[in-house]
Write a structure and sequence with these properties.
Elements (H helix, E strand, L loop, with lengths): L8 E4 L5 H12 L3 E6 L8 H4 L4 H4 E5 L5 H8 L4 E4 L12 H22 L4 E5 L25 H6 L3 H19 L3 E7 L1 E3 L12 H8 L4 E4 L1 E6 H13 L5 E5 L2 E4 H11 L8 E4 L9 H4 L8 H14 L5
Parallel strand pairs: 1-2, 1-4, 2-3, 4-5, 5-6, 6-10, 7-9, 8-12
Antiparallel strand pairs: 9-11
Bound molecules: NADP nicotinamide-adenine-dinucleotide phosphate (NAP).
Length: 321
């Protein structure tokens, strides 16, 4: 998409976050020039970005918030592509969901797309979530969930699932925006993202493995956990950007595994951590298909590799002894 001999310039929102950091790393390693938006470029939690290979010449950080349209315009100006990754992902409930979750997810996405239109961006990859897919009581039991499945907004409201409500509204609006504008917009919906961290601060989804390894829970619900490696998510976002045939939304999930089976796997590799002692039966299975993404050439790594690299990363960053 760039002129011959010129490196392509893309913007990544929320560059310092868990998923975005891997995406920035891969983009830099492929020779892209990256504009990363962060809320505070001086914050220690973004320091890892400057240490990435090729960052000194090819990574530029822009201070902006998702609710700061002018700031987003400044970051996106001159870019041919945008990866909209930023969104609050809290580990639990928040006191003011409208302000803390819905507004940054929905108004934030609108602001990013308007800024992309203004800058005549060629393609936008929006990170949505399985939370915009699977939170519905209406999908037939036992039927595999794919891109046809949407979370039920009323159900999200009545169950006070504000994060999933925000992601659902934001993704629906993004795909509507694509229909009524020139902007080429695709969405990627990852399930629970696990794997090694590049950033120094803990993010919500990384708590899943950490709490199994060291939580020492007396009892845990034996839920079906849909998981995908963070590096495979970053690869999916790249594919979404680089493949010309990409269209619409893409579910991004590798394994659905019961918590007890995940613990067994962890135990077989690392017997000495403080694992949950008992499991209570949890209703419901989950069948997910990422076939549409796989048809683009997407591959995912073995769960054992994800686990090994995650434990190594937790040890290096001091989260695990
Ligand atoms: N991790 C998962 O399991 C998972 C699963 C499905 C989808 N996703 C999606 O993947 C994306 C990245 O998630 P993640 O796991 O990497 O989370 P993360 O590490 O918490 O990163 C979230 C990023 O969003 C930024 N952000 C939040 N609110 C913002 C605002 N108002 N303005 C500007 N930036 C803001 C954060 O910036 P600060 O550092 O300044 O707070 C941070 O860089 C999100 O869109 C999330 O919904 C994640």
């Amino acid at each position: 998409m760039a002129e011959a001999g010129e490196k392509e310039r893309v913007c990544v929102t929320g560059a310092g976050g868990y998923v975005a950091s891997w995406l920035v790393k891969f983009l830099l390693s492929k020779g892209y020039i990256v504009h990363g938006t962060v809320r505070d470029p001086c914050d220690e939690k973004n320091a890892h970005l400057k240490k990435l290979e090729n960052a000194s010449g090819n990574l530029q950080l822009f201070k902006t918030d998702l609710l700061d349209y002018e700031g987003l315009c400044a970051a996106i100006a001159g870019c041919t592509g945008v990866f909209h990754v930023a969104c609050p992902v809290p580990p639990g409930s928040v006191p003011n969901p409208e302000v803390q979750l819905i507004e940054p997810a929905v108004t934030g996405t609108r602001n990013v797309l308007n800024a992309c239109m203004k800058a005549k961006v060629k393609k936008v990859v929006v990170v949505s979530s399985l939370g915009a897919v699977a939170v519905t009581p209406n999908w037939p039991k036992d039927q595999v969930m794919d891109e046809e499945c949407w979370s039920d907004k009323d159900f999200c409201k009545t169950t006070e699932n504000w994060y999933c409500l925000g992601k659902t509204i934001a993704e629906q609006e993004a795909l509507e925006y694509a229909k009524r504008s020139e902007l080429n917009i695709v969405t990627v919906c990852p399930c629970i993202v696990i794997g090694p961290m590049l950033q120094s601060t803990m993010n919500a989804s990384s708590l899943l493995l950490l709490s199994l390894l060291k939580g020492g829970h007396e009892s845990m619900e034996d839920k079906a956990q849909p998981v995908v490696d963070v590096r495979d998510v970053a690869e999916a976002l790249l594919l979404g950007y680089e493949k010309p045939e990409v269209e619409g939304r893409y579910l991004c999930s590798s394994y659905v595994i019961r918590t007890s089976a995940l613990v067994e796997k962890l135990k077989s590799m690392y017997p000495d951590y403080n694992y949950p002692k008992n499991f209570t039966e949890a209703k419901g299975d989950m069948k997910l298909s990422s076939e549409k993404l796989q048809n683009l050439g997407w591959k995912y790594r073995a769960l054992e590799d994800t686990i090994a690299d995650t434990v190594k990363s937790y040890k290096e960053s001091g989260f695990l002894g």
